């Protein structure tokens, strides 16, 4: 995990009825560079805190009494406080799709499933602050825009008449001098190789809504996002579930450089996107010329493998607990 943003001016409010949970999140935030943290033990106290001080980001637990995180979010979005557009990250021990949808419809910006790791927390915090979504106010919904993908226009009665909203300015900046140096060098090396010609690397442009690859496709290249945004999703019981979002300088599709297995997930351009393409055949040729590119691929693979290992252990533990309870 690379902390590439200055969070020292950001004031975060943690709302959780567990003192232990608040302490863990507070410690993690401090490790990210956050220096201004307020705490509340329940939803009503959280509302009071929002009225009394300027808060830039809220982390709220889902399961609380007398007011849960969804109820808190609805009050905030309804205008119970002046800062109704404050970014809200919901932390929940329940990962069921209906809970995620309920929180999303209440107006949360991000949803984070327990147990929380420092890495997953930082990624949610970073995304909420660096990539804020437009704030929508309608009779039916108030909150961050739920239209995560700018799809091509649809004709007929189902066509959305409202154009995509402009993206607001990031709440914090990513200084170019410290932002993920290995990734920056890798991109620069890849760009230089592309200029030199040959089949080393190339650049591709994808219009918003374009499917870059589908789950189950064969693959022989990976991608580094130079500009734009890509959504990674997987088919779960016939429904596309978003697994993550790849932003500038992020890499995806890297497993194709290692094995010949089909793609494990789908990738979709959420907006007009430019990617540097890394063909499998070029990887060996690039080892000596672009060492940082190789480091980037290996580090990303190791991170993903570790993450999958943790998720497998957690899934097995949940399955074992369910079997014991039945």
From TrEMBL:
Sequence positions bearing 4-aspartylphosphate: 61
Domain Cyclic nucleotide-binding: 199-304
UniProt GO BP: phosphorelay signal transduction system
InterPro entries: Bact_response_regulator (IPR050595), CheY-like_superfamily (IPR011006), cNMP-bd_dom (IPR000595), cNMP-bd_dom_sf (IPR018490), RmlC-like_jellyroll (IPR014710), Sig_transdc_resp-reg_receiver (IPR001789)
Pfam assignment, any one: Response_reg
Chain positions covered by the region annotation Disordered: 148-176
Domain Response regulatory residues, every copy: 11-129
Keywords from the named record: Phosphoprotein
Top-level taxonomic group: Bacteria
Full protein name: Response regulator
